[in-house]
Design brief:
Blueprint (H helix, E strand, L loop, with lengths): L5 H31 L7 H9 L5 H4 L7 H10 L2 H23 L3 H5 L5 H29 L1 H4 L5 H29 L2 H21 L4 H4 L6 H5 L1 H7 L3 H24 L5
Length: 266
């Protein structure tokens, strides 16, 4: 196979089965979460339970109005659960893109082809982005299609906005995982850094909404700019979306520079 997109197309061909299974899994997950909503919709007892949770922990759980469609989707799906599942895919694909090839001793064979390191890097990155895009769309469709039966009558524009916000958030961590692992040639380090950062910054962002001294750290966390609840309530949060995309671009460029400058392991 030749051409400027040869390795991107090759990746799609090799990994489409895995992506198909991931897609089915994401759809099933969202359907199960959506299907549970009618059993708690409008139940004041659920909201009473939420009020008993310490104020400092509430931001980690989601909006207080758990029984409303927006509150339910935010707390049970978009705030942490769904992005956490998709982060497994994003970080896994990011670390395996180049470091995985290097550990399998196939990267030198790829670079023996008429392709530069930069071209290979970007083609691998585009393949990851396409995979995350497919899963993001797959996570959106069940809620749209089941809005009537489940009572989750959230405007489609709001669902699209939170999905786009999540997509930008996921490619940031995919870019980070790819950059770190490509810079050192080790998948494990990329997974460790990206996963640890995702978890620690989630705690900082959540606790920072009620703990004064931690509030100043929130702008440094990707979760602050993901802002799923605002996207569901108000639509596109353009400023936050721009921050996520700019940071992703910077990370990707830094990763490429590091990959270009180091000697590959045999």
């Amino acid at each position: 196979m030749s051409g400027s997109l040869a390795f991107f197309l090759s990746d799609l061909k090799l990994k489409w089965r895995s992506l198909a299974w991931w897609t089915l899994g994401v759809v099933a997950l969202v359907v199960m979460v959506d299907a549970f909503y009618p059993s708690i919709a409008g139940d004041p007892a659920i909201d009473d339970v939420m009020e008993q949770i310490p104020e400092s922990l509430r931001p980690l759980i989601g909006p207080d109005d758990l029984t409303s469609p927006v509150g339910y989707l935010s707390s049970q799906l978009y705030l942490f659960f769904l992005p956490a599942v998709l982060l497994v895919f994003a970080i896994g694909r990011g670390t395996s893109a180049l470091a995985g090839e290097e550990e399998d001793h196939t990267l030198d064979l790829l670079l023996a082809q008429p392709v530069s390191r930069a071209s290979l890097y970007w083609q691998k990155a585009v393949g990851i982005v396409v995979g995350i895009l497919v899963l993001s769309v797959a996570s959106l469709l069940p809620t749209v299609l089941l809005a009537g039966p489940t009572g989750l009558d959230v405007p489609i524009s709001s669902l699209v906005s939170v999905t786009v916000q999540m997509f930008a958030f996921l490619i940031l961590f995919a870019a980070l995982a790819m950059a770190v692992s490509a810079a050192v040639g080790r998948k494990g380090l990329g997974v460790t850094v990206a996963a640890a950062l995702a978890f620690v910054t989630f705690l900082i962002d959540g606790l920072g909404q009620s703990i004064e001294w931690m509030e100043y750290l929130r702008p440094l966390t990707p979760w602050r700019w993901y802002d799923a609840t605002a996207a569901l309530q108000d639509g596109f949060v353009w400023g936050s979306l721009l921050v996520l995309l700019v940071v992703t671009a910077v990370i990707a460029v830094v990763g490429l520079l590091a990959f270009n400058r180091r000697n590959l392991r045999a």
